[in-house]
Design goal:
The protein is α+β, with helices and mostly antiparallel strands. It is built from eleven helices and 14 strands. It is globular. About 40% of the residues are buried. Belongs to the diacylglycerol/lipid kinase family.
């Protein structure tokens, strides 16, 4: 005889299937895996989530394939544990889905985390925020890169894209030195890149404005503005304003470079961080031009190196880039200011 109360008892298998599940996409070089597994296990249990699924990135796949597999297996949140390149790759794969991206800063720059003012170097806090925090929508940069053979590659970026000195600096960065001393390794790379006197011959179009031509050492397109060492390259950039901020560096000698350093390090890095200080910002100088818009198209006279979020992406003869407003969902602490 059937016990009538049996139908009222919860089905443990059904309950397990209804639990939300997170996935961790991690760069094995960047993380302490045993420590990470222990903290994730504790936080998922405390938050009432199901068993987390794990994916390790490889040299051939920095995160897109793993993220797609995690989504296919029903992950409701992707925790990305790696550097800026891993974050970019995971964001590219997750953006078309209503799934949250949680950051465990684990690289040299951690630029998206810095711009979102998230805690760095605190494993427990980052994972706790992932499971107990709230969602924040931010913009996503999209770019089409035209190669010399007219092939076009399409990618996403969350922080910045750059051509010229910026990309050459990355090409000259010693990975072993970077692993030992972090962002200071870029100092040597900058010195090497500065010896390259070649300028970019650029034609560009911003939104519906007319096409313009100029020569520049560097073009940087940003979704957000802060770099390592508290350097604020793009002082008016915001991750959720629906706009791209672009800077054109056009130094012609020592005085021009001094103007650029003064503007970026002193005015952007110090004065711009307070309402009172912003009153003392000077006008733009010829060596450093800022523009802002939703869409930006650029061609160069010869193939030039390009970087996305700190990773080299080969050479380009042209780009088309735009912003997808509030396309990416990022987990932030519940006490975080949006």
């Amino acid at each position: 005889m059937t016990d009538p109360t049996d139908t009222d008892r919860p089905d443990p298998d059904a309950a397990a299937e209804s639990l939300r599940v997170a996935a961790v996409v991690y760069n094995p070089i960047k993380v302490d895996l045993p420590a990470l597994r222990a903290v994730v296990a504790a936080e998922q249990a405390a938050a009432g989530w199901g068993e987390t699924i794990w994916f390790e990135t490889t040299a051939d796949d920095p995160g897109q394939g793993m993220t797609s597999e995690a989504l296919a297996r029903g992950a409701a949140m992707i925790i990305v544990a790696g550097g800026d390149g891993t974050v970019r790759a995971v964001a590219e794969a997750v953006a078309a889905n209503p799934v949250s991206l949680a950051l465990l800063p684990s690289g040299t720059g951690n630029l998206l985390a810095r711009n979102l003012k998230l805690t760095l170097d605190d494993l427990e806090h980052s994972i706790h925020s992932a499971f107990t925090g709230e969602d924040r929508r931010i913009d996503l940069g999209m770019i089409e890169i035209r190669r010399e053979d007219d092939r076009i590659d399409r990618h996403a970026y969350v922080v910045m894209a750059g051509l010229g000195l910026d990309a050459k600096m990355l090409a000259h960065t010693d990975d072993e030195l970077k692993a030992k001393v972090g962002w200071l390794a870029y100092v040597k790379a900058i010195a090497t890149a500065l010896r390259d006197k070649n300028q970019l011959r650029v034609r560009y179009k911003l939104d519906a404005h007319r096409v313009r031509s100029l020569r520049a050492h560097t073009v940087i397109i940003g979704n957000c503005g802060s770099l390592q060492a508290n350097v604020l390259l793009l002082p008016d950039a915001a991750v959720d304003d629906g706009l791209l901020d672009i800077v054109l560096l056009r130094p012609e000698g020592f005085i021009s470079w001094a103007q650029i350093v003064t503007k970026i390090v002193w005015e952007n890095g110090v004065l711009s961080r307070t309402r009172f200080g912003r009153k003392f910002r000077t006008k733009e100088v010829d060596a450093l031009n800022y523009i802002k818009g939703e869409r930006f198209t650029l061609t160069v006279s010869r193939p030039e190196l390009i970087e996305l979020d700190g990773d080299e992406f080969g050479s380009a003869v042209g780009i088309r880039t735009w912003v997808e407003p509030r396309k990416l969902i990022v987990r932030v602490p519940t006490d975080s200011s949006n």
